[in-house]
Amino acid sequence: NVSGQGPGPYLVTWNTAGPKTVTVQVQEGNCFSDVAVKTINVNPIPIAAFSVVSPVCAFQPSVLNFTGNASAAATYNWDTDGGSPANPAGVGPHNVNWATPGTKTVSLQVDDLGCLSNIFTADVTVFPVPSSDFNIPAEVCVDDPVQITYAGAALSTAAFAWQFGSGATAVG
Predict the structure, then answer these.
(1) According to DSSP H, which parts of the chain are helical?
(2) How many angstroms separate the CA atoms of 162 and 23, rounded?
(3) Does residue 172 carry a pLDDT above 70?
(4) In terms of Cα–Cα distance, which of 105, 108, 103, 97 is closest to 66?
(5) Predicted confidence (pLDDT) at residue 4 exceeds the cutoff of 90
(6) How many helices and strands (H and E) does the chain possess?
(7) Does 6 or 68 have the greater pLDDT score?
């Protein structure tokens, strides 16, 4: 228990949540006041935490799923770093997508009855959507080699799955 002498004011901090009772009684000589009793509710600090789906392709959603701790009265301040929606409302889960590739940092701060959480962040890797285009002549003679060239857009780390049909051999 913490106590004080004199009229104050006092700056008091509690390290646990829950209702706290504060009392004061004043003595003047041999005269005593009634004991004044008041209760203050100490709210817990919310915990902002969430999971993300990563990596994703551009225009395909990552699901943001809140995994922290807050009361039903909490408000959730999301920032999706250029995603859509930019600032989703509520606890979620939220489906967010990005139009441009790159690393996107999603952040969340929870306000629970005036108590603010730390800001929690998580990265989502967004890949560009590759295209599957190629160049090939319209006709070729049996047993004549033909050059087939990829003409799409993909990162150097992309994997390719070619199928050339029956009776074909491939080198490359």
Answers:
(1) none
(2) 80
(3) no
(4) 108
(5) no
(6) 0, 14
(7) 68
Please answer whether residues 61 and 132 qualify as being in contact, where contact means their C-beta atoms are separated by less than 8 angstroms.
Answer: no
Nearest to 73 by CA among 113, 119, 40, 108: 113
Beta bridge partners of 111: 75, 116
In a 10 Å sphere around its CB, with 0-12 CB exposed, 13-18 middle and 19+ buried, how is residue 126 labelled? buried
pTM for this prediction = 0.77
113-114-115-117 Cα dihedral, nearest 10 degrees? 100
Bridge partner list, 105: 123
CB 90 within 8 A of CB 72: no
Q: Is 150 helix (H, G, I), strand (E, B) or coil?
A: strand
Q: State the residue for tokens 């087939």.
A: 148
Q: Which range has the worst mean pLDDT, 36-40, 129-133, 164-168?
A: 164-168
Q: Is residue 170 over pLDDT 90? A: no
User: Any residues with CB less than 8 A from the CB of 167 and at least 6 apart, and which?
Assistant: none
Q: Which two tokens stand for residue 98?
A: 């990005």
